[in-house]
Write a structure and sequence with these properties.
Elements: H1 2-5, E1 17-21, H2 22-36, E2 40-41, E3 49-51, H3 57-72, E4 76-77, H4 82-88, E5 100-103, H5 110-113, E6 120-126, H6 129-137, H7 152-155
Length: 160
């Protein structure tokens, strides 16, 4: 959670794409939905707040547009709807962007091809390690990468 939501997701080394094996996908998503609901958005001076505002209005508007275009491109919103984003993610409410989970992100989606600077989880489901590696390498972005596995041999990979 912190890897993606630190600084409202506005850091180039924040986790951007989460690639999950089929075998853990459902359990991970259940836990993600539970945890994301604990992250209160609001005034960063409030002790209960976990996610403050976006740094600038233009960044807020760009992220909102990227999410909407991604859904138009076939991605699915798991924890909200486009109508809620249109209604609740308004400039008048400040640059507060509530966490969003995108799934079924394909190559035709904006979220696949652009870096998202904000609290948006970009979730990918793969069948095997080869598919995961190909997906991990299929980006022009990537200042950092992490692999979590119980099998060290399978965890070794080569970036192209």
């Amino acid at each position: 959670m912190e890897g993606r939501l630190r600084n409202a997701g506005q850091a180039c080394i924040c986790t951007k794409r989460i690639i999950l094996m089929d075998s853990i996908y459902e359990e991970f998503m259940t836990k993600l939905l539970k945890e994301i609901s604990k992250y209160k958005v609001g005034d960063p001076n409030n002790r209960d707040t976990k996610i403050g505002p976006m740094a600038r209005l233009d960044l807020f508007l760009k992220l909102k547009e990227q999410v909407i275009k991604s859904v138009e491109g076939g991605a699915k919103l798991l924890n909200t709807t486009i109508d809620e984003i249109d209604t609740n993610y308004e400039i008048s409410q400040g640059n507060f962007f509530h966490p969003v989970i995108l799934t079924d992100v394909s190559r035709s989606c904006t979220a696949y091809n652009e870096e998202l600077f904000g609290p948006v989880f970009n979730i990918f489901r793969v069948k095997n390690h080869e598919e995961a590696l190909n997906l991990a390498n299929d980006t022009v972005f990537g200042l950092g990468a992490s692999v979590f596995t119980k099998n060290n041999e399978k965890g070794k990979f080569k970036l192209n």
